[in-house]
Every structure is written in structure tokens, then in C-alpha cells.
Specification:
six-stranded antiparallel β-barrel, three-stranded antiparallel sheet, 4 helices, 14 strands
Amino acid sequence: MKRAPILTGLIFAVLFAFGCSKSPNEPEANDTELSDNEQMTIIAAEVASDNGGIMADVEMMTSLATGSTSAAARQTGMQIAGVDTTFTNGWISYTLNLWFYNQEGNELPWYIDGRTDKIVYQGKLSGSNKSARDFLNITLNSSSNLTAEDILSGMMKLNGAGNNNSTYEIKSAVRSLSVAAASSFSIKDVVVDLSQSQQFPTSGTMTGTIAGKYTASGPNASDEQDYSFTFTITFSGGNTVKVTLPSGNSFTLDLATGDYSAA
């Protein structure tokens, strides 16, 4: 009979140790915060071009500045300044309103090679896409207002802002998230070398406020929760950038594919 307290203490100790052995990336039962991996998945969705992120707008602006948009797109009216134009590139539908200007600041009727030095871009992106194994499912709804200048110099400079109100379904081994984004972005002095075959920004910054609501389901389910955090990307050429999360942990993000890994 005297052994009962000892046995009870051993059971308690084992249970306590088991409860403390959870992976750092696994949400606790009462944890309503997004994990680092979940935060990075949302950032990748809202930034990378293949996911319809803000880089898709940057790529489109680069394509417009070099006059390399497809003939099919131009036939829909893209080359007419001030007229809404809708076309599809892959799974993404673009609705654009464009204005073109020469070096003196005079408006042009459309893009003219060798004369267009500035483009004002208003874009809305939409579409639906499912990733392999349904890891990330996207219903895209974003908009941006960008201005490209110094096109004739070959070093196009971008400034502007955007908003993302897309919805995402994110699935992992730990839990699944239904995310309704309400994010905003700002692009400052982002330079793209138009002479390069791979035209990723060589300098400048992008700042983002990743915000919205999510509902989690799984072993650690939670009610609908608000989230909001910020990040800054500094471009230095190439397809990858470093992203530092509020936790202090850093990741390397591919601006095209959205793939990321611990830095």
C-alpha cells in the first residue's frame, strides 16, 4: 500500500515528460498562433509569382516594359492605354488598366518600343489553383497599383502598393488551416535589369503586413483567429531572398516557385 504514492508519482512524471517532448514546430493544444512554417506558407502564397503573389505583378510589369507580352494578350487590347484588359496567363486571370508615357512625361496611345519610359499599372488578379497533394489550395483575389519608370535606361524602377484578399487552404501533418487574407504590400525603389534573361529585382525593398483570419482543424483545432505580422524583403538579384519572421527565425524564399527552406 505504501508503494501507491510512488507509482502515482512515476506515472505523472512519464506523462509530463511525454507532454514536453512535442516538436517545436507543432502547435500546442491551446496555441492559437501560427507556426513559423504556417507563416512562411502564407508569405510564399502572397509573394511568389507561381502562386499569384505580388511578384506576378512585378513579372507582368517587366514583360510590359520590354514589350514581350504575348500577341494574344495584346490582341485583347493591352496595348491601348487607359482601357481595361482581361486575359489569362496559366491559371491566373489578369485584369489590367495601363497608361504609357514617354521620357518627357507625355502620354502615349500604347506601348511604343524605344519611346515608352514610364508605365502606370493597375492590376487585379484572380483564379484558383491546387498544389500537389493539396498542400496549398489558392483562390486568388489581389490588386496592385504600380509605377515603372526609367524603362529606357534598361534599369526599370518600380514603386507602388498592393492588397491581397485571397483565401487559402493549407494542409500539414499537424493541422489544416482555412485562411482569409487581408494583407497589404509596399514596393519601394525596386530595380529590375531589363537586359537580363532572368529578370529578378537587383535592389530595393518590399514590406508586407500579412493579416487576416484563419480557422484551424485537426487534433489541435481552434476557433477563428485573427493574425497579423510584418516582414521586409531586400532584393539583391537572383531568384531567392531572405525572410525573417517575428520569431527571429529566417527562411530562404524562391520568388518564382514559392519554395522555402530554413536559412
